[in-house]
Amino acid sequence: MEPFPLELPADTVQRVASELRCHPTDERVALHLDEEDKLRHFKEYFHIPKMQDLPSVDLSLVNKDENAIYFSGSSLGLQPKMVKTYLNEELEKWAKMGVYGHEIGKRPWITGDETIIGLMNDIVGANEKEIALMNALTVNLHLLLLSFFKPTPKRYKILLEAKAFPSDHYAIESQLQLHGLDIEKSMRIIQPREGEETLRLEDILEVIEKEGDAIAVILFCGIHFYTGQLFNIPAITKAGQAKGCFVGFDLAHAVGNVELHLHDWGVDFACWCSYKYLNSGAGGLGGAFVHEKHTHTIKPALVGWFGHELSTRFKMDNKLQLIPGANGFRISNPPILLVCPLHASLEIFKKATMKALRRKSILLTGYLEYMIKHYYGKDKEGTKKPVVSIITPSNIEDRGCQLTLTFSVPIKYALLELEKRGVVCDKRGKNGLRVAPVPLYNSFHDVYKFISLLSSALDSAERKYSNVI
Fold first, then answer.
1. More confident: 394 or 2
2. Does the keyword Lipid metabolism feature in the UniProt annotation (predicted)?
3. Strands 388-390 and 287-290, sheet pairing
């Protein structure tokens, strides 16, 4: 994994407060951190929802013309302003020249996906021949598992984390059923220790060491959708491969959130969606990675016309010339209207760089953590204030930008009050609130305002719903 800053976020906050001669929770700290933020201008590349346009806002509580506090990039990223321009370019091309658009323009429709693959290289840490932009995440996961999961009587299990995202869980179940395997015996799920929310790396490695000879594929998420835990991808990959397992990752919540080095880490395969931190819009174009070491040994189980080499594709002789590596897994032509939003977003990432974004993200989320612990930490037990616990790991190397919060009071009422005040985050499970300050378009002052609005929301919830809390 990459080295992290020497100064921890809490130390930075306290140092800045000392320099400003104010308390670390003072608004001046947030404003100063924003002034020092070299990435602050990137929020201008995005449409940020206004208070007045959100469906649940109470306009008597907000300034309708202010930006909402949007902390839901873990569900859906905001729209880059260039999306409309790029979509209009393709719509105009279609309107004016019809079929000729397949070969003309900066995004010829036949190679539209290939024109932007180079922008993904640094985001996932791979070379272009290892990446394919296609389909949606779960479709790609199925295609990859069809090739990588080849069970034998002795090696037939798939290892995954507890409470994996439902689509991953269902995909694994159906792959096991496809091979006529018993799900309970073949689906090996690692649970956290009793009383803990997240998995310990040593427990994962122990299971791999003890049971690896029976495991065909290890499939983990990069970052757990609920807890926000960032798994140690290189350590899991190394341990799994040492036991003869293929190791793959669902990077839905990791891509565009943390630095990835899939090639250097030797990951066998991976897939991701692009509508969360990659800001490509709902149902955006997914991606897949197949390490170059498998270029000539792993082939797609299902093939289509767009997995055929472009140079001979239009001979139409029905003699497959499969593209080696990831692009051979493509089945159909790229959906150009989905390529456009992803193109607009990836250009922003190219300018900002993942390294700089991750550096800001560590401090931004660390500032959020500091403020929550100050106002709502466990030392507040016994007072009238509700306790807010952070179930996401506290170590910066074990998380991305998301913090998952749980509350000592039912969260649904507080969430209603937050929404009235123009805060956008999302509830997961019975009492979990996912809060994700995204470094591309969120500021330190957003975090400061969130804490203030959270206090107001909790107070209001207690007053209004005290009879049911």
1. 394
2. no
3. unpaired
> Is there a binding annotation on residue 113?
no
pLDDT in tens, 271-297: 999 999 999 999 999 999 999 999 999
Q: Say whether 333 counts as a known binding-site residue.
A: yes
Look at residues 430, 390, 391 and name the one whose alpha carbon lies nearest to residue 409: 430
Q: Are 421 and 61 in contact (CB under 8 A)?
A: yes
- pLDDT tens-place string over residues 356-365: 999 999 999 9
Return d(Cα 422, Cα 69) in angstroms, integer.
6
Q: Binding site annotation covers 395?
A: no
In this structure, are residues 102 and 95 in contact, taking their beta carbons and an 8 Å threshold?
no
253 annotated to bind ligand: yes
Say how many Å lie between the first and final Cα of the chain, rounded.
44
Using alpha carbons, list the distances in angstroms from residue 136 to 74, 182, 273, 460.
17, 27, 6, 41
Q: How many CB atoms lie within 10 A of CB 69?
A: 28
Q: How far apart are CA 183 and CA 193, in angstroms?
A: 23
Q: Are strands 246-250 and 215-221 parallel, antiparallel or unpaired?
A: parallel
Q: Has 111 been labeled as part of a binding site?
A: no
CB atoms within 10 A of CB 117: 21
Query: Is 335 known to sit in a ligand binding site?
Result: no
Torsion, Cα 408 413 416 417, to 10 degrees, reads -70
Q: Is 55 annotated as a binding residue?
A: no
Phi then psi dihedrals of residue 201, to 5 deg: -60, -40
Residue 33 CA to residue 368 CA, distance in Å, equals 13
Read off the pTM: 0.95
444 labeled binding residue: no
Phi, psi at 288, each rounded to 5° = -140, 150
Q: Indicate the DSSP class of residue 308.
A: B
Give every CB contact of residue 194 below 8 A, 6+ residues apart in sequence: none
Q: Is 167 annotated as a binding residue?
A: yes
pLDDT tens column, 396-431: 999 999 999 998 877 888 899 999 999 999 888 777
Q: Render pLDDT for 364-401 as a digit per residue (tens, 0 to 9).
A: 999 999 999 999 987 655 666 778 999 999 999 999 99
